[in-house]
Every structure is written in structure tokens, then in C-alpha cells.
Structure to design on (124 residues):
């Protein structure tokens, strides 16, 4: 069911019990329209006609910006099946040569830095 259809049906069901008619203005329907949807009379009538053809509501009359509608049945969502996780976490392969090179480079940099600082203090 379309998002507009379900919002309109929920609004009607919230205002009236099943089988009872209620008068609703267009402004009340605009409250439940999604922000990205156009808010015009043709979209609202399209949603109402769709709900009538699917048997969710009945409309006695509509005049101006008022609609007399009654909910006939609730929309029941089908339960969604849980999605199984297919992937397994993979650990990156260790590369001992790269790790050894990084260790030796860091050690050599530290030793060279200490040597330079020692020479500077020895000369001063």
C-alpha cells in the first residue's frame, strides 16, 4: 500500500470506529500527507478512490473540502521475515615483513634522533 494511502487510512481509522461515518476536512488529511508529496485535491481524491476500490473505506458524500467517510477494515501489514546475516567478519592477514620493516624504521629514527641530540649537547 502506498504511503499516502496508509496515512489517509490511519487518519480515518483514528477518528472513527469500523463501520461508523465521520466528516473529515481536507485540512485534516493534509496533516498526514508526507512532506515530499504534493498536497492537492487530485492526490487526495486519488488516495480516497484507491482505498474505496480496495474496500478499506466507504464514502457517503464529499462536498467542498469535507468528506464523509467510514473505515470498513484495517490495513494489516504482512510480517517481515528476518534477514539472516550472510557475511562473516574477516580478519586482515598479518604481513610480518611489513611489520618488521616498520619496527626497524621506527627504531632507527629514534636512535638517530638520540644521537643528534647527544652531539648537540656535547658541543654546547
Amino acid at each position: 500500500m502506498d504511503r499516502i494511502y496508509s496515512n489517509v487510512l490511519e487518519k480515518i481509522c483514528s477518528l472513527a470506529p469500523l463501520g461508523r461515518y465521520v466528516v473529515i476536512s481536507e485540512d485534516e488529511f493534509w496533516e498526514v500527507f508526507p512532506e515530499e508529496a504534493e498536497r492537492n485535491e487530485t492526490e487526495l481524491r486519488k488516495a480516497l478512490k484507491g482505498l474505496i476500490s480496495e474496500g478499506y473505506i466507504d464514502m457517503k458524500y464529499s462536498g467542498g473540502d469535507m468528506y464523509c467517510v467510514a473505515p470498513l477494515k484495517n490495513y494489516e501489514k504482512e510480517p517481515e521475515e528476518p534477514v539472516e546475516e550472510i557475511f562473516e567478519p574477516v580478519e586482515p592477514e598479518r604481513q610480518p615483513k611489513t611489520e618488521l620493516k616498520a619496527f626497524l624504521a621506527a627504531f632507527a629514527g629514534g636512535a638517530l634522533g638520540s644521537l643528534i641530540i647527544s652531539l648537540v649537547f656535547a658541543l654546547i
Observations:
- The radius of gyration is 35 Å.
